[in-house]
Amino acid sequence: MKRNFSEAGMGTKSLWAGEDDSLAKGATQVPIVQSIAFTYDDVDDWLDVALGKKEGYIYSRTTNPTFAAFEEKVRILEGAEAATSFASGMGAISNTIFGLVLPGERIVTIKDTYGGTNQLFREFLPKLKMDVALCDTSNGDQIEREIRAGCKMVYLETPTNPTLKVVDIKRMAEAAHKVGAIVVTDNTFATPVNQKPIELGSDLVVHSASKFLGGHGDVLGGIVCGPKDLVKKIFHYREITGAALDPFAAYLLIRGMKTLQLRVERQNASAMRIARHLEGKSEVATVNYPGLESHPQHEIAKRQMPGGYGGVMSFALKGDFQNVKRFLNRLKFAHRAANLGSVETTVGSPATTSHVEVSPKDRAAMGIPDALVRYSTGIEDVDDLIADIDQALAP
Ligand SMILES: *Cc1c(COP(=O)(O)O)cnc(C)c1O
Known about the structure:
Elements: H1 10-16, H2 43-50, H3 65-78, E1 82-86, H4 89-100, E2 106-110, H5 115-127, E3 131-135, H6 140-148, E4 153-157, H7 169-178, E5 182-186, H8 191-194, E6 204-208, E7 222-226, H9 228-241, H10 247-257, H11 260-279, E8 284-288, H12 298-304, E9 312-317, H13 321-330, E10 335-336, E11 346-348, H14 360-365, E12 372-376, H15 382-393
Parallel strand pairs: 2-3, 2-4, 4-5, 5-6, 10-11
Antiparallel strand pairs: 1-7, 6-7, 8-9, 9-12, 11-12
Helix pairs in contact: 1-3, 3-10, 4-9, 6-7, 13-15
Bound molecules: pyridoxal-5'-phosphate.
């Protein structure tokens, strides 16, 4: 059955989108098509598919029915024309940049991107003679000035990992389009339940599907969504360089995404309560959460995150890293692990999680204090999480 999703809500889309054409012989769930290549009885049919005259599958580094269903699901949730998937979030991000930007061209971005992304900008792109302008994330005027100076791509992430800073997507997209630049937004932290970068003017949206989309801490994946012509170029780079999603991983992502809206709504609500609670604790120096009125970009967040402010926050404890270690070690209902967006609460310090790839000196330069804790709220009962935090903070 062909379904029309134009009037459907997020929850309905999470369940049904992308699966119409992939139901094999009446199975109610998308099958894992664990096949590298696809066979044809008639070589003429094969040729037609290879030449793009007919729809079909040839080889799973390029396309596969299971990961096509995942791509279609995210495409519809993000309101995009096209989507293509990857083995990880970094696969999606690096292929998006390398597929679209050439040596000598300029990228404007922010200092607070995810650690791996930051390494691309600081280490790998300069090696390829790409010019990278790293702007102060909270300084909208500076970002806009750098964009106006001309660039091929504007690369944004909002809210940022682990500082939870917020960038005004609409404002930067308007500036970028005036100079003919492509806007890319990493929507991993917000998810399409909370924020729709394409509606705000971003051309492309990238995700680490390993986080909230999968949602269960058991599968790596990435995806980029956007206009057909741009996605086609990125897809072509991926089909040749090979960072393809695995069909079994795609199946786990599809399964995880069925409950995306339920999980994210719960995580939004719990994180909001926990952030407010932490603001009242004497052991806590600062709390970074876009939903708090005290957040410097709260007004922007209110505008561009109509669904909610997400499940992740960070906060600085008073004292030094010893206090952070003691606090983390005492938590009962939290994995001390380098992950986020899972159904279980996960905690870490940027030094061991998002910015493990970045040197202590560079971390300090990026304004990431050693006493910072990143807290990714799970779907546990929120009262249990608050009690757990209180006992871990107690003297
Ligand atoms: C984790 C993360 C990535 C990288 O994703 P992987 O799937 O681990 O490669 C990129 N961006 C953000 C915001 C992330 O949190």
